[in-house]
Amino acid sequence: MLRSIGGVSAAGIAGLAGCIGGGGSSDPFVVQVTGGNYIESYEDEVFSAFEEQEDVTVEVNQISDQFDGYEQIQSGQSDAHVTITSADTLYMGSSEDVWEPINTDELDNYDKLGDTFKNPIYDAGDDVHGIPTVYGTVGMGYNRDELGELDSWEACWDEANEGDVTMQGTDFVRVFTTALYLGMDPNDIEADGSYDDGIEQIWEAVREQKDLVSSYWSTGDEHVRMFSQNEAYVGEAWGGRIKAAIDDGHDHLDYVIPEEGAYGWSDNWAMVAGIDDDKRSTAMAFFDFLLEDDVLIPLAEALGYPPTTGATSDVIESLGDYESTNGEQLTFLDPGYQEDHTDEWSEEWESIQSS
Q1: Cα–Cα distance between 219 and 79 in angstroms, integer?
Q2: Could you read off the pLDDT of 132-169 as tens digits, one per residue?
């Protein structure tokens, strides 16, 4: 049963904790995880089984989101030993020595990870600081009844679809997807060796597309409504949300990772720097445990996102974000590259929107 420990995040959100199982240890292994379906899935599929296998007591700190969790750890308001992170918070903590390096040679199951997820671009430096578990995508949703089968971002720039296109209204996503469409690396933009020429080609393509776009969306609910109610026929989408809409009866919809690729993200577990040897050993056992097929498959099914190891099931292969090459069609954001250009991209995107 969850019990309050009185922790308060930097945002003023009360922390929650729970002891899973009955180990009764006075020195529990503290894990930090987001609430809702995440904490429920981990409690049901991971924590109790890990307690039983390792004879430890797991205490769960619930956080509102991964930035909240990062702020708590960085400010000393959390006693977590391991935490779930996004690409951004994994990168931030790797850069700021908040996370303990992980010796992957000590993990029996590390080689199960797809190559895409081994020391990825969002894990700063040469050391490994995060263990990816599941991934998601920002691919292309579309109305199959109206447009037939699609497999390219070209449909989002096709003048025949004027007024029926919707795209995510975030500056870096506009840069990211457009770079993929143009055949550029979103983490190393250039044309003929020039960043300036490359980014200008991207913004020109964004301007051209603007005339085709009915609306730029900012939330999952918003873009699902647009697709479900035929306010848009094609555009960027979140695979899990489109799959849920299809399951709700909107079977005119479909979702694809275009042939040019798509934006990918992953959940990653990190170990807090400075924990003692005993808790470090438990953390390493926890990471290895997460990558076991009989643990990760039911966890991925419960979360609704495919696993990073390529482990699969009928349920996993039916997920909207499932990508049969285990992430090889996806490109992951380099947060450092984004940070270097964020002011410039934001300013140009605002200018385009207001023009």
Answers
A1: 32
A2: 999 999 999 999 999 999 999 999 999 999 999 999 99
User: Which CATH code fits 2-135+265-325?
Assistant: 3.40.190.10
CB 184 within 8 A of CB 153: no
Show Cβ contacts of residue 331 under 8 Å, excluding neighbours closer than 6 positions.
Answer: 176, 180, 185, 186, 187, 261, 262, 263, 264
Residue whose pair of structure tokens reads 């959940």 in the numeric block: 267
Cβ 137 vs Cβ 257: under 8 Å: yes
DSSP class of residue 176 equals H
For the entire predicted model, the pTM comes to 0.90
Buried b (16+ CB within 10 A) or exposed e, 268-304: bbbbbeebeeebbebbbbbbbbbbbeebbbbbbbbbb
Q: 253-256 and 330-332: which strand pairing?
A: unpaired
Q: Find out if CATH 3.40.190.10 is the number for domain 137-263+332-354.
A: yes
